[in-house]
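User: Run a structure prediction on this.
Assistant: Running it now.
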Amino acid sequence: MRKNTLDFLKEYFPLIISLFILSTISIIHIFTNDLWIDESSSLITTEVSLLKVIQQALIWEEQAPLYYFILGIWRLISTNYMFARFLSLIFMLLSVVKIYMIIKQYEKSKLLLTLFLLFISINHNAIYSAVNIRYYSLTIFICVILICQFLKYYVSDIKPDLKEKIFFSIVATISILTQYYIGFLLLAIGGVILIHKGFKDFFRYCILMILPITVIILQCIIIFSQVETYLAYNMQGSGVLGMFKFILVKIEDNLVAFNSFPDVRWLRYLIRIVYVFVLVTAFINRGKIRHEAKYLIFLLVIMFIPLSVLYFTMGDDFICFRHTMFLYFPIILLFFFVIKPLNFNLKIIILSFILASFCTMVRGEGIFFFFAIVIIFFIKNKFSKNSFKTIIPAVGIFFLILIPILLNRIDVIGSDGIFMRAVAESGSCGIHLCNLYPEKVSELMEIYSGNQIERVI
């Protein structure tokens, strides 16, 4: 029995640790976050009978009614708003479980699987969706199921049987009853099928979409009412440049939500540098990338076309975060397919240099980690063409991460805290900080006493 338990923990360790971390962070937010206005709206909508919940969701919320109906049933157990948040957490945990089942088919390394699931679990969008009394986490869960079916039956050569077709049609219908915007995902799946499989399979897909389309038609009045509500805000569209920026920001925000740390510019800079490096490396290794990535790119392109048009004509409020939750998993999965072909050793080397840059940010002496890693790398791999191909991008990332911090320190205190500090403290150079930066010392003199100045210097 004990052996079976250990085998189970070993087999599902990536899933268990990611679920534990997501649950821990989310539960802390569930019990500490104040009630949001949108959450209050959800609670008011579900305080009536179940039949009236549907009416309230359609007319008052002007939203698809399924989530509110499920929430109404859930609140029959307890009306506490913290308990209501746990429903969202459950849907998000189920999403992670389903994502694990998908990724496991493509990645055998437990370490990389764990890192990728942790990347998902600490994502701000995942946590935000898990703790809000809104339809966000249910939207993600349904989209994960749709993408899973899409990869299994419409990208591969496996033919879905009647049972699978009916299941896909039901899930598609449920998705429309959860959020209208998921229709863009269903539209994109149809477009990819037409490109990849041809008109015959596309026609079969359209037959499966009869029920979801019927549901959309029946809700047209509510959908138009919601559009009129947004138009009442006198929203203004964006220019062409803003439209392209919208696409890039949506991709960035679904990988790492920048709205969770709006003032940390160096972190944004770091993330974008990593993105650029991954894209360049992926282009170099494009022959090794799985064909699923190509169809996910088609999927996202087709989805972004109508979204960009709406953004261009109506502005950001009409295509904000809560409307585009269906983009979360396709973008995350595409990122996984892009980074997967990277050599495992290269990933570890790059991670080492990133950690060395963080150490150097915290304390200038961390630069010695950088020199140590470089020396150890060449001792192990010798001087060769392949060694330089590996070390140059890693060293480049180290300095690209570090340079913005050094420039910021120079602007604030007049020293980068690393190289200039070493020169200032070098006895052989005979240079003192007071001589290098007399203006800064004069400013400090007005604040600190003489003894404190000596410690600062």
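The longest helix spans residues 385-413.
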